[in-house]
Design goal:
Blueprint lengths: L2 H17 L3 H12 L2 H24 L1 H7 L1 H24 L10 H21 L3 H13 L6 H26 L2 H9 L1 H25 L3
Length: 212
């Protein structure tokens, strides 16, 4: 397989994974609805940066280390799951709080960095993503692969992940979706919190079950 075909195959597989609904999709859509398009775009960038970090780790072989040092991988998975449970709980508990939409200047100065950080932490909270990246790379990278292909993958992953979640942010920050969110804020927030919390709890339980 040529390097160009391998690259297209890898990006296609990663795009399918990114589009699949999960905590990242829930978080970006909720931030875009609740705060602003700018916040949603910041969260999308955070997702992209997290994806690029995982891609880099996979290419550097750290994933192999995690699989060999089993306790470290288990600790990271449990911590990631607990992080998602905490985030889901915060969203659920804040469902009944009135929504005070910030003005553009406040968004620019205060909430955008927080939205970026939430996107980054949510992406990094599941080290299984790095395993998925490593599996795709192992399956589709030619042997030997050109050094340029290795160098290109992390920035391309950043662009791919950020681009998809940018689409999500733009779609959910539009007027009609936002108006629908405001009408059903309590139930939508509780649903989002439940989804994220359940995914986190599942990650923890599956990790602990694999040890028994």
């Amino acid at each position: 397989m040529s390097a160009s075909l391998a690259l297209l195959g890898i990006l296609g597989a990663l795009l399918v994974g990114a589009v699949s609904p999960g905590p990242s999709f829930v978080l970006v859509s909720r931030i875009s609805l609740k705060l602003s398009r700018r916040d949603g775009l910041a969260a999308a960038l955070g997702m992209g940066v997290g994806g690029a970090i995982f891609a880099t780790l996979a290419l550097l072989g750290l994933v192999t280390l995690l699989l060999q040092v089993e306790w470290l991988y288990i600790v990271l998975r449990v911590l990631g799951g607990l992080c998602l449970v905490y985030l889901g709980t915060r969203i659920w508990r804040g469902a009944t709080e009135p929504l005070d939409l910030p003005d553009a200047e406040a968004v620019r100065l205060s909430t955008v960095p927080r939205s970026f950080a939430l996107g980054l932490v949510t992406q990094l909270s599941n080290p299984k993503t790095a395993i998925v990246y490593a599996s795709i790379f192992a399956a589709l990278l030619p042997a030997p692969a050109p050094a340029l292909l290795y160098a290109a993958l992390p920035p391309l992953v950043l662009v791919l992940e950020s681009s998809w979640y940018t689409v999500v942010a733009v779609a959910f920050s539009a007027q009609r979706p936002r108006a629908a969110y405001l009408r059903s804020k309590v139930w939508l927030d509780r649903a989002a919190g439940a989804v994220i919390g359940i995914l986190g709890a599942r990650l923890v339980s599956e990790t602990l079950a694999s040890r028994s």
